[in-house]
Recover the amino acids of this structure.
């Protein structure tokens, strides 16, 4: 069984690193190719990827073929690999906005196709990855994809119609979260905290708050209720955020991402 990666850029590197640190994939055969020599050397030497001559060689051998190239590179790639793909091969596409129907149609066969939308936190083993598959995908292929993304965080299967909203929260909202962290840090700085102390306090607070929601199973509204005492300080800050349209801004930002994604999707 060969797991092949075409494209060994940022996302492939994060996934392969996570796989190699996981018992299930420590000795797995991972093959790959990239246009760039430096990426090939790094992945080959550091993570035990068997580097093949090109995308065609990977497509000829891989049982699970991970397409880890930018979406705009797919049409050229398909022209090259369609004639040589290994029979029964499952395609695992990371490309944003490229639907299962578009992928299967472009591949020109009754191909088993899985779409995965990981996020940047794959680099630290904490991606929340949305996955969906077409009817040609069999259980063992689904299980393999679950294991691959389980090695870099959490794999969540869903129907394709939910991918857009889900991956907006997990894919675009990290940037919103960085913006919130930046604002908290500079507010802490303004209030007199050293920069590093303010940043670490903000990050750890965020991890703790998210853990509390997940572990307690309580709705955030109930936790807000628990931390806002009558006539207290936190309610003053909450009131200010609400008056300035904090929640509305987040709803609008998510809607804007979904609108833009819709205009780019096929
Ligand atoms: N990075 C993220 O956080 C993230 C999150 C979710 C999804 N994704 C998806 O993951 C995919 C990969 O993203 P990335 O950030 O890892 O991109 P990237 O860093 O640009 O890596 C892609 C690599 O693939 C190479 N490549 C392109 N066509 C090739 C071919 N036919 N044969 C061999 N190598 C080829 C590129 O080389 P050249 O540039 O020289 O052509 C580049 O080195 C994209 O579809 C993206 O939408 C990424």
């Amino acid at each position: 069984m060969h797991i092949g990666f075409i494209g060994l850029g940022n996302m492939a590197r994060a996934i392969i690193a996570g796989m190699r640190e996981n018992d299930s994939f420590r000795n797995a055969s991972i093959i790959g190719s990239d246009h760039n020599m430096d990426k090939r050397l790094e992945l080959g030497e550091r993570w035990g990827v068997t580097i093949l001559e090109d995308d065609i060689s990977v497509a000829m051998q891989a049982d699970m073929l991970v397409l880890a190239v930018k979406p705009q590179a797919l049409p050229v790639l398909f022209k090259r690999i369609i004639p040589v793909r290994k029979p029964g091969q499952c395609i695992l596409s990371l490309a944003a906005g490229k639907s299962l129907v578009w992928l299967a149609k472009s591949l020109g066969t009754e191909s088993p196709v899985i779409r995965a939308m990981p996020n940047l936190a794959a680099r630290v083993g904490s991606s929340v990855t949305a996955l969906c598959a077409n009817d040609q995908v069999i259980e063992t292929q689904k299980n393999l994809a679950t294991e691959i993304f389980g090695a870099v965080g959490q794999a969540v299967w869903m129907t394709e119609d939910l991918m857009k909203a889900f991956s907006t929260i997990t894919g675009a909202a990290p940037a919103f979260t960085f913006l919130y962290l930046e604002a908290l840090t500079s507010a802490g700085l303004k209030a007199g905290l050293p920069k590093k102390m303010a940043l670490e306090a903000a990050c750890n607070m965020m991890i703790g708050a998210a853990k509390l929601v997940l572990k307690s199973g309580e709705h955030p509204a109930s936790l807000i209720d628990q931390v806002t005492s009558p006539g207290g300080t936190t309610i003053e800050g909450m009131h200010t955020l609400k008056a300035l349209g904090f929640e509305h801004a987040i709803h609008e930002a998510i809607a804007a991402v979904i609108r833009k994604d819709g205009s780019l999707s096929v």
User: Anything to note?
Assistant: The domain at 2-158 is CATH 3.40.50.720 (Rossmann fold). The chain has a mean pLDDT of 93. The pocket of NAP is lined by residues 6-7, 9-12, 33-36, 39, 55, 68-71, 73, 77, 94-96, 117-120, 171 (CB under 6 Å).
